[in-house]
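Q: Structure tokens for this one, please.
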Amino acid sequence: MAKLGEVCLLKAGKFVSSNDISPEYNKGLYPCFGGNGIRGYVADYTHDGEFPLIGRQGALCGNVNLASGKFHATEHAVVVQPKIEMNVHWLYYALNAMNLGQYATGAAQPGLAVSKLETLSIEIPNISEQNKIAQTLYKVEQLVNFRKQQLEKLDELVKARFVEMFGDISNSRKVPMQDVCKIITDGTHQPPKFVLSGIPFLFVSNIVTNEIHYDAEKFISEETYNELIKRTPIEVGDVLLSTVGSYGHTAVVKENKPFCFQRHIAYLKPNNSVVNSEYLRCAILSTDLQRQIDESVKGIAQKTLNLSEIRKLRLQLPSLSLQNQFAAFVERVDQQKQTVQQSLEKLELMKKALMQEYFG
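A: Here is the predicted structure, written as tokens:
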């Protein structure tokens, strides 16, 4: 057992102006790591090698990244360099297991002091044990990343299929969104009374890539739910659309389970005789609809897509039979995604168990 500062050199990186950070990689630029990972790319580098980086500022302070090669670390990232023989990958996993965020101070802008990090205790096994642990966890992590890439590729496949089937239909008519679905942004205008457990109350962040994350942090009672659901009955096949902040995200309700949502989520109930729910969701994500949405949002500090603007969005409307063909393709892809997702969840549980075994 040793103090982290005794076995590692911990030093914050170097300030770089946001004007000097490019969001895209170009030849001659280097990755720029801030407190929450890569911020972009810059013209010079501060380090060359492989180092764990600890985020020391912001809501995610205490998170740990692993940087390799030539990179620039900003003042919000603490670069960790071993002073003794140590497997850097093992150190990366060990730092992750220490849950460093718990040592942050400050409410409005949480921060981690390097002096505090230096006093933390770390148990260091011999180098052969470190190598074994790092190799095992690295293999599992590679499999986890591969499964995530598979899910991304399957989502890209759906987008490509949509463009293939509908991108070149020049004679398809376009209709206002209000002509093919009922659009509601009722939700709850005032936050309901939350309880410790019960029916999930969803926010914009719960809608991600055609998935509704029901693992909510807020819950409402069944009594409150029954009152709210009178105004906004939710059924399988309905489409949810985020309208504030991360606007334009969509998901189809595929499970008959109770939940409620905040008013920043619009609720689209399609007319099934003219439009398929899955087609509607993907159409909203298409280049054409996203351009219309971008042009329709209001506000500067907080972008908002109003109900009236959603109604006016013009939707390309091919034949229902063609829409249904596309929906059947999406269903097959979703079945593959479910298999991959189940494998991913098992791998993540395995990694968690191994981390517990190795680091307690």
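A few notes: The chain has a mean pLDDT of 89. The two ends are 14 Å apart (CA to CA).
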